[in-house]
Here is the input.
Amino acid sequence: MDRRIPVVFGLACALVAGTHLDEARANSPSRLPAAIPLAAPAVPPPVQPARRPMIRADLPDASVECKVKSPSYEGRSALRSVRRALLQKRPVRVVALGSSSTVGVGASSPLASYPVRLENDLEGVIEGLSVEMFPRGQSGEVAEGAAERLKAEVAELKPDLIVWQVGTNDAVARIDSEDFGQQLRETLAWLASHNIDVVLIDPQYVERLSKDARYVSIVNEIATVASEMRVLLVNRFDSMADLARQHPGTSYLSSDRFHLNDLGYRCMAEYATRAIVSGILQADAENGAGH
Here is the structure.
């Protein structure tokens, strides 16, 4: 019998042995794990350019004589119509509505009245601002009468902003604060429906009236309504009370001890300017650059 192994059978055995050897190597603990491909480096998001304000202005400081510790204005309301006029590069139309303080009773000349000072102050602190000021003061007027007159003024002048010095004569006339507040709310709602910006100015501080319940109730009602309706309020009463405490020898009132004098009107204009600039900057911040 021939004991030689056929060549084909030998090759098959070799292949089987090689397969078992590969399996053993694969299961060996000394075998290194397969290399894990490195993750691609994270690409940082593109840096967005800082959004720059469209309106170039800074909140002005009060002069030494008018500087107060209490807030000279309240609220963070956006004056959107004023901002729109600025971006359209047209004059901002402002109606100064009110009673004897708007007329300028007690001032040495019309140039010392608060509407004139307000116009000059605003144009001095906001780049590119031109103001068309329409003083519409009427001595002795109460809020109800002003509301009726206001509608005619709006129809004729189409203002962007109403600066309304309100409440003094209502307090002196002993008008109920709740009735006054309701009239004020209705008028402010009407102005808002016509997209007209508003800044309120409350009554002046008069020492002999500072503890009068009716007078103070009107001052408080204006603050309540301004907060509810989200309207900027110039704190004339509190600010001038602060001035009286800080500078007892300095008078901000005229010889009748009720109306303001030149210094009082200057401070009043400065406080209103701060409130208006704040409202413009608030509107700019809400809309963002490019809007």
